[in-house]
Design a protein that fits this description.
Length: 173
């Protein structure tokens, strides 16, 4: 089992261990990112139970299989080792995540931003991101905001706000 020193940096969860895969310690991981290459590009992932602190583990291999990632970590060499990690989160240090192209955002960057209409009226703070096949939906109070250009005017990460176009029916009024 991985036994590196504890990591207490800001972590970004990229997957959740669902179960062992096979008998050689491979993990079947549910992706919690729209960017599976984050896993492939890593030499190290952080194993965490709380998403706050954890232990580093060297990545031996990553492959995508039926919508999940199959991850082999150094020191996880048997089905029993892998079973011990069931339910654990796999994360990267926030400062190690790659830069995204213009107009793409990490989900955890969106959560906590204030959603406002173009005229400045507050909708509420975005508390959740629902991921969907067609597009994500940002939840601000009781308002569901489709994360598409017809609704999202601007995302200002530094100003901690999202400007939303006031389209009839958005707020249910």
């Amino acid at each position: 089992m991985p036994d590196g020193g504890a990591v207490n940096a800001a972590l970004v969860v990229v997957g959740r261990v669902m179960r062992p895969f096979g008998i050689r310690g491979e993990l079947k991981v549910a992706l919690e990112t729209d960017f599976p290459d984050v896993l492939r590009q890593r030499r190290e992932l952080i194993i965490t139970r709380d998403g706050i602190s954890g232990s580093p583990a060297a990545v031996e291999s990553v492959r995508i299989h039926q919508g999940a990632a199959l991850v082999k970590l150094s020191g996880v060499d048997s089905r029993t080792d892998a079973e011990d990690l069931r339910g654990a989160l796999l994360a990267v240090r926030e400062e190690d995540r790659p830069e995204l192209e213009e107009g793409r955002f990490w989900l955890d960057d969106i959560i906590g931003l204030e959603a406002v209409f173009e005229d400045g009226r507050s909708i509420g703070v975005i508390t959740e991101v629902l991921t969907g096949l067609a597009n994500d939906v940002w939840v601000a109070g009781k308002v569901l905001i489709p994360a598409v250009s017809e609704f999202i005017v601007r995302v200002d990460l530094e100003g901690r706000r999202v400007v939303v176009r006031d389209i009839a029916g958005l707020t249910g009024e």
